[in-house]
Prior knowledge:
This protein is of the alpha/beta class.
Amino acid sequence: MKVDKGTDDALLSHRGSVKVTITPCQPKVLTHLPKRPPVDIAFTDLNYSVKEGSKNNVKTILKNVSGRLKSGELTAIMGPSGAGKSTLLNILTGYKISGMEGSITINGHERDLSQFAKLSAYIMQDNQLHGNLSVEEAMNVATALKLGTQISKQEKTQVIQEILETLGLLEHIKTMTSNLSGGQKKRLSIALELVNNPPIMFFDEPTSGLDSSSCFQCISLLKCLARGGRTIICTIHQPSARLFEMFDHLYTLAEGQCIYQGSTQQLVPFMATLGLVCPSYHNPASFIIEVSCGEYGDYVRKLVAAIQNGKCDIQAGKPFPQSEQLNNADVDKKINNMQTATVSESGQGNNILAYAHNDIVKEPTAPTGDGVVIPIELSPVDSDKQPGVTTNLLDDTLPTSTQRYGTSELNQFWIVLKRTLLFSRRDWTLMYLRLFAHILVGFLIGALYYDIGNDGAKVLSNLGFLFFNMLFLMYTSMTITILSFPLEMPVLIKENFNRWYSLRSYYMAITVSDIPFQAVFCVLYVTIVYYLTSQPPEISRFIMFLSACLLISFVAQSVGLVVGAAMNVQNGVFLAPVMSVPFLLFSGFFVSFDAIPIYLRWITYLSYIRYGFEGTALATYSFGREKLKCYQVYCHFKSPSTTLEELDMLDADFRLDIIALIVIFLVLRVSAFLFLRWKLMSQR
Ligand SMILES: Nc1ncnc2c1ncn2[C@@H]1O[C@H](COP(=O)(O)OP(=O)(O)OP(=O)(O)O)[C@@H](O)[C@H]1O
């Protein structure tokens, strides 16, 4: 029997007697992807607890759940809000590891997280894409990182073309990621992970935020991927009947326990055996959610017992697990009625297990418009690997290579560095606003302190100018990093978890990437103010002055990295300037070293502003500078040594200031890396 596209009601009214077939359009075979093994996942007695509150109360989120997820199947993890779907997904992906008990096996062997990470991809709910890259650029980066030198450049281009064509993104290849629609972003997220052909793909709420047509396209695509022999697992809230039909396998959670595991087609008959008859015209997906929310009475415990908390797997053609509910006469009657109906319509003998949606013929429902053009052939999943998308590419052996990433760390560094430089070039705030600010403030300060550098009567103002330089360079380089770095975190978490690159390569790349820009801005600013304010014209003094200023801006940028790595933007924007106050107070500008109480002097050694201020003051007034001009009767600071004496810098050593700044810079960079690593680990 044939049912038109979109006629869910008609489809539902024939539940139990029809079969879903989506007629293939032009087959698209991903021929260039690397071969990967098919992977089955099983988990047994999985427990997950978290500590909560000041008394460290233990909250158990997953309670002894078991289950299995097979290759070639599209699995939905469903359940009411708070049931533990995301938690289960995070545990299965290996994203959450602490607080978990139980066993997870891969093709019958205990899961080795490192090996598993090479086989799986986790596509998180919010896509986590870089908006400043085009689809093509994003794909190029993913291919370069994930495939490395395994294949030639030409083959990489073919892989990208094929994947984009298959996912209906080829016509958007030049579009910036930020301009893609929600569905296209989702498909791009999938395309990026597909380049190394992971045999297991996890999706957290892949349909969230999509309209019904895009949802259908998205699930069709996942179905296609599953048909290629992959294990596709996604959490989903409450799919429409039409979407629900497309899943092969359903895993339902309620209150952290499994209430159903098995074929989607067997859900309704299985529930009926427990006295839960899904009304006609009712979406089975909604029905099980309603049941798990207790709308039909307290059935959760019965369902958990019947399915043995996930140890049973309801399959067509296999008997249901024994349940005391089956003895209930009313239930028997209901089942018998359903059996009779099924037998008479499908003519498949007298087995209730034959009751399914097996005979619905629905055509054509391949996605249309700008959507996915992959052919979708829905047929029983029991035949393990259907010919289709990439089945023939799957290798049977699990990888044994010890290589953690697709390419060497040096390559990762170059690729991420190039990408970051591209972002910087395209980021208006990061680049042009910063450039504009440095030039504008440079001229403003130049105008304010114009020509005071060699005037013996204006030395105090000149010291104010030196201190302001420190302040300006510190805040501009620190705040921009505090504001921009935390925004990178979600993408970093996703890409690092999916083994695109190591944290070390990423960190090196972002550390190096901003240094040239910061250096150019600083040189521009210092050049403008130095000459407008008539500081000593010797080139050696200018270089010393500039190097102290450059180091201050690099150190402040490192402070920004530490703060950005350790906390979110809101806290960082408040805390970083507040934490800088002691360093400013102890810089030697407000109070000379002699005047500081002994027990507080140690703070001056930590104050990088002190070293910067001292460095610029020495470059200006030390190294035998001749007396300044005096246009008044008396200029107290006419002699540069008087100024240095007043600042308690007569014995100061410029080289020590530079060394101190370099040491602080290195310590902060290493600390930022450790914070970042801690933050990534603490999420898990
Ligand atoms: N770190 C945590 N500390 C305390 N409780 C937690 C923690 N993580 C999860 N939970 C709780 O565990 C339960 C399951 O959370 P989870 O996010 O897995 O639910 P979900 O089924 O995915 O819900 P939704 O569909 O609303 O996203 C919720 O009650 C949640 O509050």
